[in-house]
Specification:
This protein is of the alpha/beta class. It has one domain: TIM Barrel. The protein is 37% helix and 12% strand. It is built from eleven helices and ten strands. Strands 1, 2, 3, 7 and 8 form a five-stranded parallel β-sheet that branches. A three-stranded parallel β-sheet has the order 4-5-6, with helices on one face. Strands 9-10 form a two-stranded antiparallel ribbon. The chain is globular. It starts with 11 loop residues before the first strand and ends in a 23-residue tail after the last strand.
Length: 284
């Protein structure tokens, strides 16, 4: 396996995105501790409807991590002005905490053309969603009139919460992420994962620890964050690389036959995992 220009000459690339929707200080701290222990600089998209009351925690995160904008209201609108207002209200609050943002992640991963038009007015460099387009590599989405100037940096769309809701337990979730990391590495597409601290990664920090350990086992990985990678991609002016979700995204396993499957559906580009029939749920 040779290195790729898109990976800055490395054989693989890894970044982790955090969507911080609701604050549970202990869970936030546990998530942060896992990243700092492994010297990982994650990109934290912070929702400011609740974040405005947690300045101390946000500034603590910003000391070692990349903090970006996840909107004020946790919602994506069908009106560009409402989207712009939502983005800039959060941006202002973050600036008051001495944090300057250059990107936005839409709540629930929903991107639409009206959001795209709003982002054009922010001066932001990129956004990160997973329900727009079929590319796994960064690309410029179509806003309806023209190609956007704001880069789209997709991520793997299955998080720990999705797995729990589909009946996975902690051990099975760790196995899932191990398999998807291996698959994406072998296919030489970005290993860009995401998750939420509150009730998820912060409540089950072993999952995040195991993800970092698994990636560290791979040969020649470029450890980066979404903001640095977006800057790299824009500087190099790479052409859009077509790589289908259906070939590289979701990995599920049929327990009975142990057959490996990749499933996808194109309505919204959100990958689904297979629900497991188990008697006990992991939720506490």
């Amino acid at each position: 396996m040779k290195g790729l220009k898109q990976f800055n000459g490395h054989k693989g690339i890894f970044a982790f995105r955090i969507d911080l929707d609701f604050f549970h200080p202990k869970h936030v701290e546990k998530t942060l501790e896992a990243a700092e222990k492994h010297w990982i600089k994650m990109t934290w998209f912070v929702n400011m409807e609740t974040g405005q009351f947690h300045e101390r925690e946000i500034k603590r995160i910003a000391k070692t991590q990349d903090v970006q904008n996840h909107g004020f209201l946790h919602e994506t609108f069908k009106n560009s002005e409402k989207n712009l207002e939502n983005i800039m209200k959060a941006d202002k609050l973050l600036q008051e905490m001495d944090i300057k943002c250059s990107s936005f992640a839409a709540p629930f991963g929903f991107w639409n053309k009206e959001l795209g038009k709003a982002l054009e007015k922010t001066g932001y460099e990129y956004s990160s969603e997973f329900r727009e387009g079929k590319s796994i590599f960064p690309f410029y989405p179509n806003t309806g009139e023209k190609k956007a100037r704001v880069l789209q940096v997709p991520i793997h769309p299955i998080c720990l919460g999705n797995l729990f809701e589909s009946g996975y337990n902690e051990k099975e979730a760790i196995e899932y992420f191990g398999k998807i990391i291996k698959l994406l590495y072998e296919k030489q597409v970005p290993i860009f994962l995401y998750g939420h601290p509150t009730g998820r990664l912060g409540a089950y920090p072993k999952v995040l620890e195991k993800i970092f350990e698994k990636v560290n086992e791979l040969d020649d990985i470029w450890f980066t964050n979404l903001t640095d990678y977006a800057g790299f991609w824009k500087k190099k002016k790479f052409k859009q690389r077509e790589t289908g979700w259906d070939e590289h995204n979701v990995f599920v396993e049929d327990k009975k036959s142990k057959r490996k499957k990749i499933k996808a559906f194109y309505k919204g580009q959100l990958m689904r995992v297979e629900k497991k029939k188990i008697s006990k749920r992991l939720h506490k």
